Amino acid sequence: MADAARRMRDLAEKALRGPFPLRIRAWDGSEAGPPDAPTLVMRRRRALRRLLWKPGELGLARAWVAGDLDIEGDLYEALDLIAGIVWDTGEDGAPHPGRFRRAADLLRDPHTYRLAREALVLAGPGLPPSPPPEEARRRFGPLHSPGRDKQAISHHYDVGNDFYERVLGPSMVYSCAYWEHPDTTLEEAQRAKLDLVCRKLALRPDQTLLDVGCGWGSMVLHAAEHYGVRAVGITLSTEQAAYARKRVAEAGLTDRIDIRVQDYRAVADGPYDAISSIGMAEHVGRDLYREYAAHLYGLLRPGGRLLNHQIARRPWADEEAYHVDEFIDRYVFPDGELAPVGSTVSRLEEAGFEVRDVEALREHYALTLRAWVRNLEDHWQEAVRLAGAGRARVWRLYMAASALSFEQNRIGVNQVLAVRTRPSGAAGMPPARPWPEQLKA
């Protein structure tokens, strides 16, 4: 079988009814396809079996994570070309969320079914390959129950603080940075984001702040050091909490910052003067979002502010047909669900909040993700040693693909500033946006 690459290319082009945009190098050393395009390297025949047994994004992901499949050349260009295959496009040539072309649907076509049979011969005999060990296994308990949420959070965050240090850099902030200038460093951009949140919340000395999903403690540390607040940070990750407590102790702020391993639904103290939720609400779930908003509303004093920083997806024409990306669900954020920004605003308003400001930061997240990918690639051998090759490959793929998704407006990210107004109706907000100046209560 010295022509496997050509045979795969021919099968792909018959299935697509058009040219296959990537070059292919097969396990037998053969190559086919455009000479200047990124190369899809099929290291083992098993890669093709993975794609055939699980057509679409999950099969591709399993082959990538297992090292059966690789890409040589520009990773972003390759992923962009692959996205052009799996996303339906409109007359403008742009991908349209809600019109994802599942490979499993294509196989229902008699033409592509015949091609799949030919591909099975090329893939060779063998049972369906086992998923790589990095894939999230069966989750126990009702969806988004506290116990199941803790399992999901542990899968993503409890993979080693040393690994995250290599990816995130010294800031240890795992959310969209705020790039005020194109030549800003990642660390400067993350500090700018934390400060922007503090200013929007109008934090002042000795106010109380609750940071929901506090990660490695960067937000509470910034707010306590630069704005003098007393802060509580909560996370479901034991590794994050240990790391954050160490940072708090080293900063001499144990009397002002309390780090807890706690579900947001279990927080019963307060009221707080302000609440920040940065990159946490994606884990809440669509069906529980109203409960999430109502609980945070109850934890705020009248006049208190909530800053909800959250990734959003584009709305689907048929919301009931919405499905979670299988790669993200199995390998990255188990049980994570994205909602359109309009749904988030509606749920906050239904809970009693008055939404006062929405700022879209889509392009900022693309820049952030590209910076994280550079960090990972620059520390690749260390990352592999710390978390394993499969885990490192998961992070590289998901961050690079996510950067493209933000750039191409498949997903976005927004900071929503909401207020629990006083009984009189007063919100304590200035008449116009004062950023970057300090907000006055």
From TrEMBL:
<dbReference type="Pfam" id="PF02353">
    <property type="entry name" value="CMAS"/>
</dbReference>
<dbReference type="InterPro" id="IPR050723">
    <property type="entry name" value="CFA/CMAS"/>
</dbReference>
<protein>
    <submittedName>
        <fullName>Class I SAM-dependent methyltransferase</fullName>
        <ecNumber>2.1.1.-</ecNumber>
    </submittedName>
</protein>
<dbReference type="InterPro" id="IPR020803">
    <property type="entry name" value="MeTfrase_dom"/>
</dbReference>
<feature type="domain" description="Polyketide synthase-like methyltransferase">
    <location>
        <begin position="163"/>
        <end position="422"/>
    </location>
</feature>
<comment type="similarity">
    <text>Belongs to the CFA/CMAS family.</text>
</comment>
<dbReference type="InterPro" id="IPR003333">
    <property type="entry name" value="CMAS"/>
</dbReference>
<keyword id="KW-0949">S-adenosyl-L-methionine</keyword>
<keyword id="KW-0489">Methyltransferase</keyword>
<dbReference type="GO" id="GO:0032259">
    <property type="term" value="P:methylation"/>
</dbReference>
<dbReference type="GO" id="GO:0008168">
    <property type="term" value="F:methyltransferase activity"/>
</dbReference>
<dbReference type="InterPro" id="IPR029063">
    <property type="entry name" value="SAM-dependent_MTases_sf"/>
</dbReference>
<keyword id="KW-0443">Lipid metabolism</keyword>
<keyword id="KW-0808">Transferase</keyword>
